[in-house]
UniProtKB/TrEMBL annotation:
Catalytic activity: [(1->4)-alpha-D-glucosyl](n) + phosphate = [(1->4)-alpha-D-glucosyl](n-1) + alpha-D-glucose 1-phosphate
Cofactor needs: pyridoxal 5'-phosphate
Keyword RNA-binding: no
CDD domains xref list: GT35_Glycogen_Phosphorylase (cd04300)
The species this protein was found in: Triticum urartu
Family of this protein: Belongs to the glycogen phosphorylase family.
Protein name: Alpha-1,4 glucan phosphorylase
This protein's GO CC annotations: cytoplasm
Gene name in the database record: LOC125548828
Amino acid sequence: MSAADKVKPAASPAAQEPSAIAGNISYHAQYSPHFSPLAFGPEQAFYATAESVRDHLLQRWNDTYLHFHKTDPKQTYYLSMEYLQGRALTNAVGNLGITGAYADALKKFGYELEAIAGQERDAALGNGGLGRLASCFLDSMATLNLPSWGYGLRYRYGLFKQRIAQEGQEEIAEDWLDKFSPWEIVRHDVVYPIRFFGHVEISPDGKRKWTGGEVLSALAYDVPIPGYKTKNAISLRLWDAKATAEDFNLFQFNDGQYESAAQLHSRAQQICAVLYPGDATEEGKLLRLKQQYFLCSASLQDIIFRFKERKADRVSGKWSEFPSKVAVQMNDTHPTLAIPELMRLLMDVEGLGWDEAWDVTNKTVAYTNHTVLPEALEKWSQAVMRKLLPRHMEIIEEIDKRFREMVISTRKDMEGKIESMRVLDNNPEKPVVRMANLCVVAGHTVNGVAELHSNILKEELFADYLSIWPKKFQNKTNGITPRRWLRFCNPELSEIVTKWLKTDQWTSNLDLLTGLRKFADDEKLHAEWAAAKLASKKRLAKHVLDVTGVTIDPNSLFDIQIKRIHEYKRQLMNILGAVYRYKKLKEMSAADRQKVTPRTVMVGGKAFATYTNAKRIVKLVNDVGAVVNNDADVNKYLKVVFIPNYNVSVAEVLIPGSELSQHISTAGMEASGTSNMKFSLNGCVIIGTLDGANVEIREEVGQDNFFLFGAKADQVAGLRKDRENGLFKPDPRFEEAKQFIRSGAFGTYDYTPLLDSLEGNTGFGRGDYFLVGYDFPSYIDAQARVDEAYKDKKKWIKMSILNTAGSGKFSSDRTIDQYAKEIWGISACPVP
Ligand code: Z57
């Protein structure tokens, strides 16, 4: 059936009334045709609806751009190699306040909005927490009317799709642009040249210029980001790489040399082909560095263009004004090349001297650190850098030299520390550039992402710099957008919150949630709360059945751990706990079993393709599930499910339906965590260590409403030493759980190497670096306290309510407001 059969097409962009909206959807189905005319199934309906919504977004985008242009405020540019946007339709109509109108319009075609929204593919241009944080930040920037944009890369294939096969995880390319994305707008007039390789030429007057090599083009795609209940819409500008017609060698092509004729075109395609290509090989490393430079160079050229565009007299000179109009935030060290690139553009293109360029750069850029794990602190080979970016390497060497001179001349007492503080590590075996050191030396501010993490930065990782620049270091505890992560993903609970607070203002003023505290014992609220949770649990159970074929009981305790699979996050401890629980259930009498709290343990997450132990953990969860779930003696009391292909839209189903969630990293290793905030906001109780933002969540929700266990961050180093020195005596329960797996209870796969990683480093073990053995007994004890608490329904629901009530601090609106005031120096610029 064609759309026109149902509703007459009408080109009424940004229509507000259901019938006009339906006409506009019908218009897009026919006049922005991407499908053959007679088809109007759910998929076609999604694309036509999205294009209709895009009309609204574009209008706001244009108004906002013009308003910023006229007002000329200081603007922030968030540079990130990752954005985990997920789906956009529900969020867009929700933020614009037109959900009801679009739902009614779609009914005229016989469709439910929710089902149509489910047609959308996730935009997964990120790996995990860091990318999703960037997306939450964009939502808050737009909502707070802040002049700010995001810059990223338009990867052809986003984060891989995970499939679980007999051998464990398989990776499949995720084709998010198949068929196309209705949200991106290509800007054919926003194109910048990006050079790679080549050499530095020195003119007679000593000026340096980078030439030669290969030059590609960066082409802009804008994804409009609407704020909640505001006219402002900001941009996520994604760069794609292109070669031009001039780069196409027609002579070679006519000669039959098809591949070499289009060599530059295929090199351009490689740049944005995939997110985070494996960097184990030299080729892979070079490509990753190319991506980073591509993002930085295109974004800075664009920023400088806009700085000039906004006032005619900036075309030459006025560079001292630049930091009062531009703030650049580097999301981790991945965009560090923004530093030498801004220096290069200012000196070689705009003609500034070193000191002036340095002053501008320093006042413009700031750096967020997201990890203290040494393997994640980027170090680039000086040789690779010199080959790909010869001029930038010169600039980095000069920064390094001047930093050393500064320390020597002003801080005699620090001379012994200089080598480790330097930007360059000139170890003759492998000379590298230390990107984090470059960020600290060049940026005006360095921040961590939770109190504990920021303190570790000051006391350990960056301690030496602290005495030189005591005011450079800050904390900005992460946050999440309450729109996506409560209002839109959990409409049942949202309605209850609105009803009891007598306002829906909490959606943009999350601190209002504390108003729920006074109803924490109210029986009527308890009944409504429990009903909403049950509805979400049923939705979750349906998802699990759909994707795994496993039936789970919505009356059991839903216990969830979803995040990237990593040894420091200790999914292995979770599964050892489940194995221990299973063994005890097997040993019990049938009568005793009936007193046990039934539990469904769910684990989800992707393992990096070459991370062997992470992949073994995925396999183990699946193997344990296969045995437990089919064991008729116990499967009423325990199920273990691996949730495949965890991503943003799966999280939106799992989090509302969760009752207990696990955030159990080795203390000091998880910089913040952000899903912990999402769970708590949705009335889920946390079992966790004193790590990252857990510390602050526990403070806010109250220690009675958080199941705490495990070593503290300041004990970890000593405990590792003890373990090394053979002073650790493992708990028998820990030994029992490992032994049960070693005995082959979960199949024939050889888990020896995985389990050996938990043994002391005497003989075959690898030292249990993540202290699973030390924390296991207190973890099991905490789980026993969970079981007891869950038996008391009233108590549990009260804990749940108090978690939601205590989550106000973790709104990304609060986080972004602090960045705006304390790092960027920008203020709201609402479209009138
Ligand atoms: C990433 O997702 C995070 C840190 C990194 O260094 C990289 Br690379 C990717 C995460 C942290 O592990 C989380 O603890 C944190 O909540 C998140 O970044 C956002 O700050």
